[in-house]
């Protein structure tokens, strides 16, 4: 099924039911422990109204609201946009930022069928930010087709799926103006040659060479938007096949909504900043401490200590073999010293530590180590939520070193 409103999603319906139960039984709860029902209802309404408003404004243009998008950003877009064209322009600007796109795509590595394709995703990013939109579009189309083909036992790529096959259970991409709706144009345009500019992701026309004038930021950004939606569809399929969760209780509802609000507030309040050695907070920043521990362990070849500081994704995937994976990656990349020179805080839970690394021969290279503040599952968690700073770009090749003389 598809959902006429975000309020029709099972998770939203469960929240509404829990709020009704809370309202009827709140007198049983000690006064000092009663949740603020009005605030909880307001938060739930804010999320649902924002999702529905997005689809009302941009759904006809085949943009899809996905789980990685900021609700606060979307609400601001809805309140400031003068119309669909202005909203589309703001949305493109939202994607067209390297740090934000990194943040949006960080969860792709948790999908098994996506992992072999992440190198292509990174190349698509390079093409996108270099203005090579034609190349970015082709790469992302191939990633989506291959991912969907491998994701399920039924071997058919995204282009071979009917819209009805893209229903997403309990997911915002399952909105009736979401992925299923946008997919109706995905397979169009395979017949006559068309040299007019297009602004839709016409997969078949682009791949088969009949649609020629698609080299623009709108189509490329829609390709990123579609990739995020397809990833959400895959997660929804996985969730749908899992045993139903235990019946929710009111105790968990305030926590979930409060956490959601804290993440949104932290994201909205954050301002990117660079911190250097001259700044008072340089050595007190938790990412500095984490990076110092990692670099000291690297210098000492303590791969066990290094593995405990890298992303939880490696821990969850490798378990006790994580130190071995780190050793294999770093055995040929030894350092004899290091100096941290800058912290580039680009998002509420993302900091890039720039460090000069001294090699065994005395040569110096500058490395960019991207740290994410994560929970145990590997999802980003800004303060004040519980989390630890962990190295996301944990493989040496991913740290983009730049060689220079000592």
From the alpha carbons, calculate the radius of gyration and give it in angstroms.
Answer: 23 Å
| SS strand fraction | 5-15%
Determine the number of helices (DSSP H or I, runs of at least 4 residues).
15
- Average pLDDT metric: 85
Number of strands: 6
Structural class: alpha+beta
Biggest β-sheet strands, sense, barrel: 6 strands, antiparallel
Topology as a string of helices (H) and strands (E): HHHHHHHHHHHEHHHHEEEEE
**Roughly how much helix do the residues carry, as a percent range?**
40-55%
The tally of domains stands at: 2
Shape: globular
Low-confidence stretches: 247-256, 401-406
What is the straight-line distance between the termini? 62 Å
Can you tell me about this structure?
The protein is an alpha+beta fold. The protein folds into two domains: 6-267, no CATH class; 272-404, Nuclear Transport Factor 2, Chain: A (Roll). The protein is built from 15 helices and six strands. The protein has helices spanning 10-25, 37-58, 71-80, 84-95, 98-105, 118-129, 133-151, 179-182, 203-207, 217-241, 252-269, 286-299, 303-307, 312-318, 322-330; strands at residues 273-276, 337-347, 350-358, 364-374, 388-391, 402-404. Strands 1, 2, 3, 4, 5 and 6 form a six-stranded antiparallel sheet that branches. Strand 2 (337-347) and strand 3 (350-358) form a beta hairpin. The longest helix has 25 residues, at 217-241. Mean pLDDT is 85; it is low at 247-256 and 401-406.
